[in-house]
Amino acid sequence: MIEERPARPGSSVEGRVVTVDGGVASPRFDRVATEEPLEIRLRAGEGARTVAITMRTPGNDFELAAGFLFTEGVLARASDVRAISYCLDGSVAEDQQYNVVNVDVVAGTLPALDALERHFTTTSACGVCGRSQLESLEARGIEPIGDDGSTIAARMTVELPERLRAAQGVFEKTGGLHAAGLFSLDGELIAVREDVGRHNALDKLIGWALLQKRLPLERHVLLVSGRTSYEIVQKALVARIPIVCGVSAPSSLAVDVARRFNMTLAGFIRGPRFNVYAGEKRLGVS
Asked: DSSP 3-state assignment of 229?
């Protein structure tokens, strides 16, 4: 139903660069991460609508589309999806066909997308956005994470960044990608996805879990390679991931979400140290 053809172009491209070392310039070839637009189209019955366009690294495009639609509340479960495909029917230019993904849903009509539209018209300059974002999560019926005894040892937490880094295949080639990794409570890396956008990397990861029918992701740990924004924590909350860690710092709204919804949020994992901003009990510290 959702077999994905190889994405075109690839996840990295080779080009000529000039390396300067000690004032000496040396031409050579190097690889850089690919960045291309992805248009996500939702189709139901006779209706079709573009719901998002994002700049992404090609690869795992179907997971990206599914994860995005799930975390934004358009899809509720894997069974909502009839099929996912590239747009290869000639309605778009041939060189863009692998940059357009069609998501066919089981429902006969397109779902209401008002909430999705409002999400993408808000900006960081809007003074009421923080409170409204929190209220919108509650309005969707999203409840706080339960206390099920999920914990990960502090000594294990500090090992996660190196385990994630070792699994980043495209980063190894290009040095220019974010990653989102899903771990078990004993530190086993279950899945990792990479992208030029950290939100896309997480959508790919959650989309994988959705299509593999592994949701909800209770008793798991998420690690992201960059800073932890509101969007990252919100997406983790929808997927029911109780513990979110970041190599860098969280935003204030990310901390607010974590505290409001009983999540654990850690950041600045550097060597043996890290900061805990919410839910320290799941990390065995107090």
From this structure: coil
Element housing 173 (H / E): helix 169-174
State the pTM of this model.
0.86
HSE, side-chain direction, 13 A CA sphere, residue 251: 14
Q: Summarize pLDDT for 221-271 with one digit per residue, the tens.
A: 999 998 899 999 999 999 999 999 999 999 999 999 999 999 999 999 998
Q: Which residue has the tokens 């909430």?
A: 115
In terms of phi and psi (left: phi > 0; alpha: psi -120 to 50; beta: otherwise), the region of 262 is left
Kindly provide the residue ranges of all beta strands, DSSP E only, lying in 62-177, ordered along the sequence: 81-86, 100-105
**Of 40, 178, 33, nearest to 99 (Cα)?**
40
* DSSP conformational letter for 91: S
- Alpha-carbon span 216 to 77, nearest angstrom: 10
Residues with catalytic function: 126
Q: What class, spelled out in words, does domain 133-283 have in CATH?
A: alpha beta
